[in-house]
Design goal:
Layout: H1 18-34, E1 49-50, E2 63-69, H2 72-87, E3 91-98, H3 101-110, E4 115-119, H4 120-127, H5 137-152, E5 154-156, E6 166-170, H6 172-178, H7 183-192, E7 199-200, H8 203-207, H9 212-219, H10 233-242, E8 248-252, H11 256-260, E9 264-265, E10 278-283, H12 284-289, H13 292-297, H14 299-303, H15 306-317, H16 323-333, E11 337-338
Helix pairs in contact: 1-3, 2-16, 4-5, 15-16
Domain ABC-type glycine betaine transport system substrate-binding: 63-331
InterPro entries: ABC_Gly_betaine_transp_sub-bd
Protein name: Glycine betaine ABC transporter substrate-binding protein
Length: 340
């Protein structure tokens, strides 16, 4: 399983069973009791100094524990938060590789971590137990913000435009030969020549209502007419890039292999797929005590985009660079921190 996927592959996209929720909670409890991670974070992985704005006097020396999920994008996101808070003068403890989305969530709810970055769709469907996503990005964020504050006193800061959701992709040759740019174009191709639309996908995507069956219904094509080889995630990217087995392949929109393999992502012009915008989440008591944190982290809203995350993910997953170095380089380039 490639590390660029979210922590437990598609867990943020599926509603976990009661058993899985219980198991994840027990894992967190065991880790805390045994002292093997959640009760003691590490130090910030690389030194940083303040940017032109300097430190924030009210935050200097304040202890903060930053959590993150153990896949490439999750680790990078947590390092971005860590470096900005450290540059502001905070005493940062690093817990950037928690094993699984549910472990991250439980650690935040229980106060083992103070802050991190999370996806709106993940919270709405996996943590808050809703069956249907809200496909308007602002509406989805507002719904999560309100429900999580009321139910758990977890605060959601304004979201970035990073949206790590499903899509299909193809190589450049297929994009030119088929002329497909949007899923409406894809549906037209299926309806006219389904054998020209061979689409590789994961097993789960092929049966999920917010996957293949629902996509076909939303865009008006018969999914039974399309050849759909079932493959593991990592194989899909490579097979789509080669183009012999897959004309189209299921992908995640901010996966670094999209750019690394020069794949063309299809536009979801009817906004069928759920929205998974990345945003800072923080315990209510903590941000109430240290409201300056919001201003320190506010630049992430403007500078984090799908294109930026794809580039950073690619540097880690394709080029083999260290995620901490990638995150720090980005913030240095943006003039928000210095390299310590």
């Amino acid at each position: 399983m490639n590390s660029t996927m979210r922590s437990d592959m598609t867990a943020p996209r599926r509603q976990p069973s009661a058993f899985r929720r219980l198991l994840s909670s027990l894992v967190v409890v065991v880790m805390v009791v045994s002292g093997c991670g959640l009760s003691n974070g590490g130090s910030v992985p690389l030194p940083v100094g303040p940017g032109p704005q300097g430190t924030v006097p009210e935050l200097e020396g304040v202890r903060v524990t930053v959590g993150g999920k153990d896949f490439t994008e999750g680790v990078i996101a947590s390092y971005l938060v860590e470096f900005l808070l450290a540059a502001a003068g905070m005493d940062v403890s690093d817990m950037s590789s928690l094993a699984g989305s549910n472990s991250f969530r439980q650690a935040l709810v229980d106060g083992q971590i103070d802050i991190g970055m999370e996806y709106t769709g993940t919270a709405w469907m996996s943590y808050l137990g809703n069956d249907e996503p809200i496909r308007d990005p602002q509406g989805q964020w507002e719904a999560v913000r309100d429900a999580d504050r009321a139910g758990h006193d977890i605060r959601w800061l304004p979201p970035t435009t990073v949206d790590n959701t499903y899509s299909f992709a193809m190589n450049r040759a297929a994009a030119e030969s088929t002329g497909v740019q949007t899923f409406s174009d894809y549906a037209e191709l299926v309806n006219s020549d389904p054998q020209a639309a061979v689409t590789c996908m994961e097993t789960e995507f092929s049966v999920r209502q917010d996957g293949w069956p629902g996509l076909a219904e939303a865009y008006g094509f018969d999914p039974s007419t399309v050849p759909t080889p079932i493959m593991q995630t990592g194989i899909i990217y490579q097979a789509t890039a080669v183009g012999n087995e897959c004309t189209f392949g299921e992908v995640y929109t901010t996966d670094g292999r999209v750019k690394g393999l020069d794949l063309v992502v299809i536009e979801d012009d009817k906004r069928f797929f759920p929205v998974y915008n990345l945003a800072v989440v923080v315990r209510g008591k903590f941000i109430d005590a240290h409201p300056q944190i919001e201003e320190v982290l506010a630049p992430l809203v403007d500078i984090l985009t799908n294109e930026v995350m794809v580039e950073m993910n690619m540097r880690v997953d394709v080029d083999g660079e260290d995620p901490a170095q990638v995150a720090r380089d980005f913030l240095v380039d943006q003039g928000l921190v210095t390299a310590g």
